[in-house]
Amino acid sequence: MTLAFDEPRIQEVVGSLSRKMLINGEWVDSASGRTFDTVNPATEDVLASVAHGEAADVDAAVRAARAAFEDGSPWRKMPHGQRGKIIHKLGDLILEHLDDFALLESLDNGKPYSVAKAADVPLAADLFHYMSGWATKIEGNTVPVSAWDPDQYLAFTLREPVGVCAQIIPWNFPLLMAAWKIGPVLAAGCTTILKPAEQTPLSALLLGELAMQAGLPPGVLNIVTGFGEAGAALAAHRDVDKVAFTGSTEVGREIVKAAAGNLKKVTLELGGKSPNVVYADADIDKAIAGSAHAIFFNQGECCVAGSRLYVEESVYDQVVEGVAEQASQIKVGNGLDPDTNMGPLVSAEQFERVTGYINSGRDEGANIIGGDRVGDRGYFVAPTVLTGTREDMKAVREEIFGPVVAAAPFNAERDILPTANNSNFGLGAGVFTRDVSKAYRTARRLRAGTVWVNTWNVFDASLPFGGYKESGWGREMGHAVFTNYLETKTVITDLS
């Protein structure tokens, strides 16, 4: 196996990172002095030991963020255009460190270096570039009063930053999820505490270094590395005004409970079990390729993975055989191997979860195509297709978060839509058809925040993203994201 980087280069990039937490513009140890290990999922070797943040560290970070948000602070006094320049500069710096970020994402998460370099890192930079323009475009309105003398009263609205924000991100797209959270919060003029996933803290630490280089004042961005107790302390902290969380629906429910103490605002981007509907009139080759991409991209560790594949009966065998053939051609291996198409799952826990669902499907009577462990070291699972499934199967109902798709046939358009919508989730969905009218009807009736037609996994900083039902509250990206981070104030003046 030939790797894209040799060991000295890996040690250079990982070794140059701070392993501490960023609080008030300084890299600091945890209050307890404790650390934890982050592991390379391809080798099961320890990459680095990182500060283990807990409640005391969260409290220090919140105090720093509050001070940075107060009236008269450099951040609050900064002209909006200057704020936008700093955000844009951070995007530039990410591109300047493209190789380093891609390497860290591959080492810490397992994803192919080539994918991180082509997608994760450029999209993160683009998010900051896009959001930088919004810093000067947050506007209120002048409102004509309707029940009073319009010459006597001047009424207008202001859009003001919500305050101190806690932002808790997952491990599947570590850098990109950090960008999705930090970009709009900075453009809105808020301050923040970012809590990266304990499995993948390294790219967040590099991002913190670059944020300071870009000119972000101390305390505006704080980074606390740690486990669930740090996230819980953030969600419950009474001096946090807003919490944004991306992760599982189960943890999302706990976030809501923790936030109830001071009724802080909450946005949630949670789990999914996305239906992918393939009609018989689709471009079958495109549908096969798109359906495989929908589930096997990023090792299936994607909240919008097309994990429920519904194919019109007359082409069912052809499509399923095509997806299974594509799965068999996927090279599973170390993300630093240039020939790798799919890396390992992120952790031993995730490996056990995914293989447990595959075994559950087998036990409940599904046919398993693939599903084997690959190699004897690292958390590698072969891409998997389940056929002969039923809607009551655990592997069909619950989010697996791995490269496992459950396939089933359907007879007619009127039959499939109730089935496709028969889920507690509603994050993503897709439809493949050549019939524009059918595509529109299906997209309108699918209960999901994003519906792809004849494609999958197309994201853009300008496009709002979020879920229906138990897939969350609120939207990321686009101008819609600012609903999360701005308050509306109404001002009425008597001119008489």
UniProtKB/TrEMBL annotation:
The keyword Oxidoreductase applies. Coiled coil: none annotated. InterPro entries: Ald_DH/histidinol_DH, Ald_DH_C, Ald_DH_CS_CYS, Ald_DH_CS_GLU, Ald_DH_N, Aldehyde_DH_dom. Residues 27-491 form the Aldehyde dehydrogenase domain. Keywords: Oxidoreductase. The active site is at E269. The keyword Oxidoreductase applies. Belongs to the aldehyde dehydrogenase family. This is Aldehyde dehydrogenase DhaS. It comes from Pseudonocardia eucalypti. The gene is dhaS.
